[in-house]
Design brief:
alpha/beta, Rossmann fold, 5-stranded parallel sheet, 4-stranded mixed sheet, disordered N terminus
Length: 413
């Protein structure tokens, strides 16, 4: 064991030993969630709340869905105990996330923490959970570096950006074989861990697959102006623009493009802002034909009717259809509840061991995945991405072929 592991283990043992007696009662299991519930990303946090409430309804009541924990009431191995959701606002601030995770564990006595949308916040939350030997389940954080830090209590059921980006380049390769000209790329990414990791991955795969990067622009997240950056994109005039930006920056990008007269030939986005209904409400008429990677599509409802039923449950709460983020959030809570049931305990270490032993077939999810099974780093490598195109106010699955319901419209114009 190296010095870092020894220190981490000692710190975790001390932290765990200092925890107050768990206040989990016989009829409830307390699970913590930390998201931005105020500030620029608040709407993402509110949508997440509705997704987790939908999952809790499935767990706490008896539904005839082919999903973990849907049939029967509550957590069977704990006498039907109901899941209780405890929410905390990290305000998109990594240090606030650290503090809120600690409060959830030490004061709210949660047995697991789920979060957090922004990958930069997931870094501090997961480190805090590791110290207290409480599992952190990364519902929709996509930075590849998150599962490569040697943490034992970190788990991610969904894909990371290397998996998503590989799907994008597989799509480019397939389009090339059809005679479509795709030679040059423009990368546009914010400067937190999400954008930086995304840009690095895209650069690596472009070199490996034979695509030329004609612009690689890193900008300051939550900036007030993107005029200079968009002028660079316009001058480069790449075959594909590949943005990695959260919602407010994505809206600013598209509005600035319109102001400066730059129309991208094609946009293939790294999700984030390009999966948010707020983005499409603001600029949807300007991005018809844009493509985003995803882990979910409502198209799956044609093969699995329960997907449509669960979407209806979510829509009743939120007024929205499920999307890439909220579908992952629902699955994250179902995975946690399944692990708690198999652990027969609310002890963090026992839940961690149960999560590590998870093996859920893909047809027992609402996702187009092979299965949910974690490797030693806590990553599920069987979560298969899809690409969605925004056409006429809705998303259609265009890739891979086995999931596609339509051919890609190319170029956007």
């Amino acid at each position: 064991m190296d010095r870092r592991s020894l220190l981490l283990g000692g710190t975790a043992a001390l932290a765990a030993g200092s925890l107050p007696a768990m206040s989990q009662t016989a009829n409830e299991v307390r699970i913590g969630f930390t998201y931005a519930l105020s500030g620029a990303a608040a709407l993402i946090g509110v949508d997440a709340q509705r997704a987790f409430e939908t999952a809790a309804e499935i767990i706490n009541n008896d539904y005839n869905f082919n999903l973990p924990m849907a049939k029967g009431v509550g957590i069977p191995s704990l006498g039907g105990a109901k899941v209780k959701l405890i929410f905390a606002d990290h305000q998109s601030d990594p240090q606030k996330g650290r503090a809120e995770a600690e409060r959830l564990i030490t004061q709210e006595n949660v047995c697991t923490v789920i979060g957090s949308y922004q990958s930069a916040v997931a870094v501090t939350i997961s480190q805090t959970c590791e110290r207290y030997q409480i599992p952190f389940v990364s519902a929709e954080n996509s930075s590849p570096s998150l599962h490569r830090r040697g943490l034992k209590y970190y788990f991610r059921p969904a894909p990371h950006d290397e998996m998503y980006t590989a799907a994008m380049f597989d799509f480019f390769d397939a389009m090339r074989k059809k005679g479509v000209k795709i030679e040059t790329l423009a990368l546009f990414h914010e400067d937190t861990i999400f954008g930086t990791d995304s840009g690095n991955t895209q650069t690596k795969l472009a070199a490996e697959r034979g695509y030329k990067i004609v612009a690689d622009i890193k900008y300051r997240a939550n900036t007030s102006s993107l005029s200079a950056e968009v002028q660079q994109l316009k001058a480069a005039n790449a075959d594909v623009l590949m943005p990695s930006s959260y919602t407010t920056d994505s809206i600013l990008l598209i509005k600035t493009m319109a102001e400066l007269g730059y129309k991208a030939n094609a946009i293939v986005a790294q999700d984030a802002g390009f999966s948010d209904t707020t983005f499409y409400a603001a600029v949807g008429d300007q991005v018809n034909g844009s493509i985003s990677r995803s882990t979910f599509s409502l198209d799956l409802a044609t093969k699995r009717p329960m997907v449509g039923a669960i979407n209806a449950m979510f829509k009743e709460r939120s007024g929205k259809d499920l999307n890439d983020l909220t579908s992952r959030e629902i699955m994250a809570l179902l995975v946690v509840a399944d692990a708690i049931n198999r652990a027969k305990s609310t002890d963090g270490t026992k839940i961690r061991d149960a999560l590590a032993a998870t093996d859920i077939p893909g047809d027992q999810t609402i996702m187009p995945w092979k299965r949910i099974k974690f490797d030693e780093s806590g990553q599920n490598n069987d979560a298969d991405p899809v690409l969605l195109q925004y056409i006429g106010g809705k998303f259609v699955t265009i890739f891979p072929p086995q999931a596609a319901v339509a051919e890609a419209v190319w170029p956007m114009r």
